[in-house]
Amino acid sequence: MKLSIIIPLYNESDHITDCINAIKKQLNQNFELILINDGSTDNSETLLNMAVADYDKKVTYIKFKDNHGHAHARNVGIQAVTTPYFMFVDADDQL
């Protein structure tokens, strides 16, 4: 793998499924997903688990009990990277 895609999220139940599905449709699948749930209180976790259930690539899921902020979630995502390159995708983005 050459790329890690880091997706920090907090209460993104309206967007996370579309974001993950768009990533799964990419032709070049040479990447890992790093999902950082920053203490969501909605059903983001359930939707996220459903979206990646049939995904056969490497997925790292990190969940915080409490919200620590977007910058903290990004920094934790960087620490989880196992590839030479990484990028951030916000949960309301579609590639």
TrEMBL record:
> What's the short name of a Pfam family annotated to this entry?
Glycos_transf_2
Which InterPro entries does this chain map to? Glyco_trans_2-like, Nucleotide-diphossugar_trans
Q: Per the database record, which ranges form the Glycosyltransferase 2-like domain?
A: 4-94
Instruction: Kindly list the GO molecular function terms attached to this UniProt entry.
Output: hexosyltransferase activity
Gene3D superfamilies from the UniProt entry = Spore Coat Polysaccharide Biosynthesis Protein SpsA, Chain A
**What protein name does the entry list?**
Glycosyltransferase
Identify the taxonomic lineage of the organism of origin: Bacteria, Bacillati, Bacillota, Bacilli, Lactobacillales
